[in-house]
């Protein structure tokens, strides 16, 4: 990337890196660190033509969310303004956008159905 003076790094963080949560201090701290790293590298690498962005997913429909208890799933869905979990393809769409938009640098894209707003 440095030789070509062009490239894109897309980091994946987590909503817990923004909001935190009970019982998740180490995970939340690591994901908040990803956001700090993203911002620092965006500033440092931009002059070399390398863009650095982050995607911040909320609840995404995966084996892990499918394994939630009915009560936990219902509580999570009730907290999300769009009343649904995201789909992995929606995360992929965001990654394609960030990878192809040549002006996207230092973007932190929340994909959480509005959960971080409440």
Describe the structure.
The chain is an alpha/beta fold. The chain has one domain: NAD(P)-binding Rossmann-like Domain (Rossmann fold). Helix content is 44%, strand content 15%. It has five helices and three strands, in the order E-H-H-E-H-H-H-E. The protein has a three-stranded parallel sheet, sandwiched between helices. The longest helix is centred in the N-terminal third of the chain and has 21 residues. The radius of gyration is 16 Å and the shape is elongated.
Name the CATH homologous superfamily: NAD(P)-binding Rossmann-like Domain
Order of helices and strands: EHHEHHHE
Strand order of the largest sheet: 1-2-3
Based on helices, strands and strand pairing, what is the structural class?
alpha/beta
CATH class: Alpha Beta
Instruction: Give the overall shape, derived from the CA principal axes.
Output: elongated
Continuous helix count: 5
Q: Any idea what the CATH architecture is?
A: 3-Layer(aba) Sandwich
- Which blocks of ≥5 consecutive residues have pLDDT under 50? none
Proportion of residues in β-strands: 15-25%
**Rg, Å, rounded:** 16 Å
CA-to-CA gap between the ends? 39 Å
What's the count of strands? 3
Which percent bin holds the helix content? Answer: 40-55%
Largest sheet: 3 strands, parallel
How many domains? The number is 1
Mean pLDDT: 97
User: Do you know the CATH topology?
Assistant: Rossmann fold
